[in-house]
Design brief:
This protein is α/β, with parallel strands linked by helices and about 160 residues long. It has 2 domains: about 5-95, Rossmann fold (3-Layer(aba) Sandwich); about 110-160, no CATH class. It has 7 helices and 8 strands. The strands form 2 sheets. Strands 1, 2, 3, 4 and 5 form a 5-stranded mixed β-sheet that branches. Helix 4 (about 75-85) packs across helix 7. The relative contact order is 0.14.
Amino acid sequence: MVKFVEDGEMKFIANGMLGSLARWLRLLGFDTEYFSGKDKYFLAYNARKESRMVLTRDRKFVVQYPVISLLIESENLRQQLKEVKDKLNLHFSPELFFTRCNICNNILQPKNISDVIEFVPEYVAKTQTHFSYCNVCGRIYWQGTHWQRMLDFIKSIESNE
């Protein structure tokens, strides 16, 4: 039997049809790899090796690998997130929100303004105090104007609006 939970959190691998879902699961704090390849056997191998649940819209894959996969039926991102949450009985933990790079899945490191001042726009440096840094891809994150919209989107998933 494959164990999908590590340190109390589910680990996922989303196939090529679910890139937006992968990014949002990362924003929610879930360890989520993205697999854009075509080789289903390699996808299944990686999922087993890394103890990850495969999220896919490929019905044949789910029939072939029922123990390690979850069929995502909707094409709508909000509905996809609700499906994952409901089918796996997941809890979204606010303390994990925005703790992973939404591009490469690495855990973000907190940074002070002095660490990033030369890498962010002047307005951001004047208006923000909390930053996160991805030491793999080099991206810097802060609570910009989009932050509240993203939190509202998450709340709408949790409240089934």
